[in-house]
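YM 10:42: Carboxyl-terminal processing protease sequence, as discussed on the call
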Amino acid sequence: MSETKNTKSQIRLPIILALAISAGIWIGATFAEPKGNQNDLRAALYKLQEIMTYVNRDYVDSVNSNELIDYGINKMLEHLDPHTSYIPAKDASIVQSQLDGEFDGIGVEFGIIRDTIYVVAPLTGGPSEALGIQSGDQIIRVDGETMAGVGVTNRDVFEKLRGPKGSVVVVDMKRKNQKELIEYRITRDKIPQYSINASYMVNDEIGYIKVTRFAATTYDEFKEAVYDLKVKGMKKLVIDLQGNPGGYMGAAINMADELLGGKALIVSQEGKVDQYNQKAFAFKPGLFEEGPIIVLVNEGSASASEILAGAIQDNDRGLIVGRRSFGKGLVQMPIDLSDGAELRLTIARYYTPSGRSIQKPYGTDYEAYESDFMNRYKHGEFFSSDSIKFNDSLKYETVKGRTVYGGGGIMPDYFVPLDTTMNSAYVSRLFNSDSAREFALDYVNENKSKFEDMTIEQYYSDFTVSDAMLNDLVEYGKKNKVDFDAADFNKSKDYLRILMKAHVGRQIYDDSAFYKVVNDINEVYLQAIKLFDEAEKIAMATDLHEEEEE
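YM 10:58: structure's back
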C-alpha cells in the first residue's frame, strides 16, 4: 500500500481551523454565552474541521478550500436572515467605497456600451477633468492592457482604474473624430461621491432634495442643500427617497434631527445583546424644524430611508407620499475579517417612534424574499392601496393619535399608484440596451456650442427633444439590435421625449437637471406638490388624545 503524504496546505488547514475554534470559544466567553452553547459551538467547529480535512486530502478532484469555505459561509448566512451577508475580500473595498463617500481613482463616471468603456462624465474636481478627458471618450487600453471588446465588466474597470492616491495609471482613449488614441498619464486622487443627487427650487416656496443613498457624507450634503434652499426662499420641503436602498443609519438619524424639534424619538433598536439596545432622540436645534415636509417613498425605499420616513410620520412632522416601502427593519454591523473580507451581521431590529417593526416577514426561502417585488406587482399592490391588508394586532398610533401599521414597510399617508400608461416594452428595450445613453453622449458632444450659455432653468423651460432626435434614437436602437416597434413608439412618444431630455440634461449639467426634467413624469412627485396643505394640517393638528379628554 502506498503512503499518502500531506501537502503544506493540508497541514495548515487543521491549524487554521483550530485557531478559528479558539477564536470562537473566546468570542463565546466574551459575550458570556452559557456553557452549553460554548460546547455546541466547539463541537460544530470541530465537525467542520473534520469535513474540510477529509475533502482537502481525499476528495477525488483537487479543490480550492477558500472558495469552498466562502460558498459554505454564504449558504450558512442565508439560513439566518436575508440581510446578514459575507463580502469576500476582493469585493469588500468596492462595496465599502460606495458608503464612504469617497474613493481613490481617476475620477470618471463610466458606462459599458457594446463591450466598450465610455466616459459618461469626468467627475468635478477629479484628475480626469483636470487633464481634459471628455464625455464620450472610450477607454481602449489601461496600462497597456486592452479593455475594449474583451467582455469587460464593472469589476474589471474598478480593479484597473481605482488605486492608491498618488499612484499613476496610463489610459489610452479614443475620441470621436480623432484617428489616433490619446494617451493620458493620470495620477489617482481622492474622488468624492455624492448621495444628494439633486437639489433645486420647484417654485418660489418649495424646495426639492433627492437622496439616493445614506453614506458617510450624506448628512453634511443634506445640511448644505437645506441651507442653500432656505437662502433661495424655501418654506416647504420635498425629500425624495424613492429607490433609496438605505446605508448608514446614523446619517438618517442626523437628518431627522434637523427636521424634528424638542426631544422627539427618532428610532430605537433592540437586539439579543444589551449593548445593541439603543434609542436615538432629537437633541439639537435643526435647520428646518418648522414648515411643512413631504417625504416621497416607494417599494425601493429601504432601511435608513424607512428610519427617516418613519420618524417623520410617527412624530406627525409631515406627510409620506407614494407607495409602501421595502420593509427592511434589521440592523447590520460590519465586521472586518482577518483576510480583508467583511461580515455584515444582523445584531438588532429597529423600531419607529410608535413602536413599529417595519421588517417584512421572512423565512428560510431566500428566493421568495427576493421576489417580493414581483409578488406585490402581481397582487396589485402597486396600483391600489385596497390590495394591502393590515393586521389589527400590528396597529400603532402616532404622537397625535393617527393610526399606522407595522408588519412590513412604511405605508404612506397618501397612496400614489404606479403609472405604466406611458411606458412600453420598446422604450424599456431601448434603455436596457444603452442606446439612449449612447445617443445622449453623442448628441451633447456634437452640439456643445448650443448649450454653452444656456442655464439649467433655460434648458428646462426652452429645450425640446425633436422628432428628428427621436428618429436618430430609433436608429441607435437598431444598431444595438432593438427592433423598432411603431405602436409602442407612438404610444410612448411624449414619455420618450421627457426621458431623453432628462438624459441629455444630465450630460450637459448634472443630476439636478436630470431630476428636474424627469420629475415632470414622476406621478408621486406631481401629486406631492399638490399636498402641502395636508402636510401642514398634520404638523399643526392638535393631539387627538387631548381632544378626547376635552
